[in-house]
From TrEMBL:
This is Uncharacterized protein. Residues 24-33 have a biased composition (Basic and acidic residues). The keyword Transferase applies. It comes from Eragrostis curvula (weeping love grass). Coiled coil: none annotated. Keywords: Transferase. The lineage of its organism: Eukaryota, Viridiplantae, Streptophyta, Embryophyta, Tracheophyta. One of its GO terms (molecular function) is acyltransferase activity, transferring groups other than amino-acyl groups.
Length: 71
């Protein structure tokens, strides 16, 4: 098995906002979020191959976070 090596460059923190406007409303926690018994830690890390043409994985993650913030 070949070890994976890559360089990491640390930059200043930046705000990740939603990809589109979001409604101004209060969101209640779900029952799952509210019950400690249902919270658990899953000790796994999954790795996936990058799609063809992906040169900057950080930008892909940033864009996905922006889209996840839109209801």
């Amino acid at each position: 098995m070949t070890a994976l090596t890559f360089a990491v460059r640390r930059k200043e923190p930046s705000l990740v906002g939603p990809a589109a406007p979001t409604p101004h409303e209060t969101k209640r926690l779900s029952d799952t979020d509210d019950q400690e018994v249902l919270r658990m830690h899953v000790p796994f890390v999954f790795f996936y191959r990058a799609g063809k043409g992906v040169r900057n994985p950080a930008s892909v993650i940033r864009r996905a976070l922006c889209e996840a913030l839109v209801p």
